[in-house]
Each structure stands twice: as C-alpha cells, then as structure tokens.
Amino acid sequence: SYELTQPPSVSVSLGQMARITCSGDTLPKQYAYWYQKKPGQVPVLVIYKDNERPSGIPERFSGSSSGTTVTLTISGVQAEDEADYYCLSADQSRAFLVFGGGTKLTVL
Amino acid sequence: QVQLVQSGAEVKKPGASVRVSCKASGYNFANYDINWVRQATGHGLEWMGWMNPNSGYTDYAQKFQGRVTMTRDISTDTAYMELSSLTSEDTAVYYCAREISANDRGWFDPWGQGTLVTVS
User: Where does the pLDDT of residue B103 fall: very low under 50, low under 70, confident under 90, or very high at 90 and above?
Assistant: First the structure.
C-alpha cells in the first residue's frame, strides 16, 4: 500500500524556522495537503495543493515541492504552532488517500 | 455556514458494530464527497474512505475493507459510517470531512467535531 513518510519529531527554538518533510512516490503527480492537529481539536488545513495557503492561516506557513518530497516550512515559529503536522495525498489511482505518520513540532 | 455535526460518543463491546452519523448543513450535500478519518489515542490520523453522496459510490482504505460501510440519507443530508467487528484497537475519535473538490483529493473543509468511540 502507498505510504507517506514524515520525521516523527522536529524541534525548533521560538522565532526560528521549522521544516517538516513528507516523502512519497506519487508526490510528483499528486498534490499534498498539510494539516495541523492539536490535542482535543479538529485538524486545520494549513497548506493546500503543495504550496497554497488558505485564508486565515498566518503567512509564516508555506509549502514547497521537489520531486518525491514536499516540505512544510514555518518561518518565525510561535509557541502556538506547537502541534502535530500531517501531510495527506492521494495514491496514483486517486481513489485512495493516505496520511503521513505525522510530525510532532516542539517549540523550545 | 457550512457545517458538519456528528453524533455523540459511543461505548461498544468487542465484536459489536458502531454507526456514526454526520449531518451536513449550509451547502448542497449531494455535491461534495464525504471522507472519514480516525485518530486513536497516541496515534496519527488515519484515512478510512470516502463516499459520493449523490451516487452513493464509495472507496475504502484497504485496512478497513470488509468491515466499514459508508452510506447516506439524501433526504436528511446525513452521512453514516458503520464499522463492524470492533476491537480495542478501534477505540478512536472518528471524523467526517467534506472534500472541496473531486479534482483536489485531500482538501477537506470543514470537518465534523469528532465522535469518540470506545471499545471496552
């Protein structure tokens, strides 16, 4: 079955830049979506179609794509950005979706 | 406003089935696919499958095939997810989510508030 691979954890100091990667064979052909998940809250979309930011999401959130890897970048990390982040994309058939394993972002 | 409201928490015994409902409002229910996602405590988000409310067509993640059924009631704008043969590993919060476009698989907005299913 199709898989997306994320690092389990990323730590960054307050105000610094955080980069979270997501790797998968079909990412060159399928868009990736990034969701922020905090305990007890509903997932929030922070990046869609690899690099588009929904309205209401701070400008410090950005996305990029290169080959089989997509990257979520948070510039000037704030304390409230501490959360789990998940990439989501479709397999080659587009019938099935898969989440990456999630990355826990810790703000030091 | 566009909203998905899910049914309340459930407690089930191992081997039983559970049905979670997801009532849509604020948009044409038939025009947007509904996806189901779950998160077990201490685990990540897990995509379970999707349904086209207009046709009733479904696709299920391989892990859940044979155990999950997604249906809808067009007259009440409600989607349902039924999971059978429950085990303790199915204890999780279950979410429904509207998919913005069939051409943009993975773009979910909004999400339901989540339904905790406890198997014990």
Answer: confident
pLDDT band at B53 (very low <50, low <70, confident <90, very high): very high
Q: Which chain B residues are within 8 Å of A1, Cβ to Cβ? A: 62
Contact B44 A102 (CB under 8 A): yes
| C-beta atoms of B105 and A97 within 8 A | yes
A contacts of B50 (beta carbons < 8 Å):
97
Query: What gap in Å lies between CA A18 and CA B92, rounded to an integer?
Result: 29
Average pLDDT, chain B: 97
Backbone torsions φ then ψ of B110, nearest 5 degrees: -85, -175
**Greater confidence, A1 or A102?**
A102
Q: Do B107 and A102 touch (CB under 8 A)?
A: no
- In which band, very low, low, confident or very high, does the pLDDT at A54 lie, cut at 50, 70 and 90? very high
Task: For residue A42, give the nearest of B46, B105, B113 by CB distance.
Answer: B113
Integer CA distances (angstroms), A9 to A21, A103, A107, B32, B39, in order: 11, 5, 11, 34, 18
